[in-house]
Amino acid sequence: EPGGDPGATVGTPTAAGATVDPDAAARDPEGALVVVDVQNDFCPGGALAVPQGDGVVPVLNRWIDAFRRAGRVVVYTQDWHPQDHVSFRQRGGPWPPHCIQGTRGAAFHPDLLVQGTVFRKGFDADREAYSGFDGALARGETGVEPEVDLAGWLRQQGVRRLYVGGLATDYCVRATVLDGLREGFQVTVLVPAVRAVDVSPGDGRRALEEMQARGAVLAGGEAP
Ligand code: VGL
Ligand code: ZN
């Protein structure tokens, strides 16, 4: 395997897949950590709260710290909508207004370690964008650099493997993982570091099964 053991597996395999140690994964020179949408509006008290959404923060902070210490790439995606976004109910969409550009709801959870590069998505009022691969490099307080896309940016840095956690399992994590696989990256989903909206019970579990069926490795134990 060029570039070393992709999973750097440690411990006992579980039904959901192998256990992955953050420090071991951070030794993979072709690995990057992708932190999806850990924003106030997706946490308890937010406009589109994911049950126990803030539970991912301590788990991801451990991963972020390991990756930064090892000098690895850490990428954050940020849902970043204008006030009249097509996904909002006033425009016939499924969601209450959330993650409106520049608001506290769109900000990252205050306890999340933010040390890395931010890609924003959903900034086009007329287009939904669940996947981080639809994102653009963040620039300044509100803007984006539309010409810099996530897949090209990752490849440019020699990244071949993605370790993904964040919110929500059944929407933006799912879309980011499936696009990452389509783009040719090896993808490991950090199961203890994701939480689902579960509009219908089981959506999160089904999303994990779908990601696994398409080639993602589910790591870290059963879905919470
Ligand atoms: C998300 C619903 C709407 C997500 C974003 O981050 O999973 N879900 N916008
Ligand atoms: Zn959204």
UniProtKB/TrEMBL annotation:
It is an enzyme of class 3 (hydrolase). Keywords: Hydrolase, Metal-binding, Pyridine nucleotide biosynthesis. It comes from the Bacteria. The keyword Coiled coil does not apply. Pathway: Cofactor biosynthesis; nicotinate biosynthesis; nicotinate from nicotinamide: step 1/1. Residues 32-219 form the Isochorismatase-like domain. This is nicotinamidase. The keyword Chloroplast does not apply. It comes from Thermaerobacter composti. Its EC number is 3.5.1.19. Residues 7-23 have a biased composition (Low complexity). Belongs to the isochorismatase family. Residues 1-24 are annotated as: Disordered. Pfam families: Isochorismatase (PF00857).
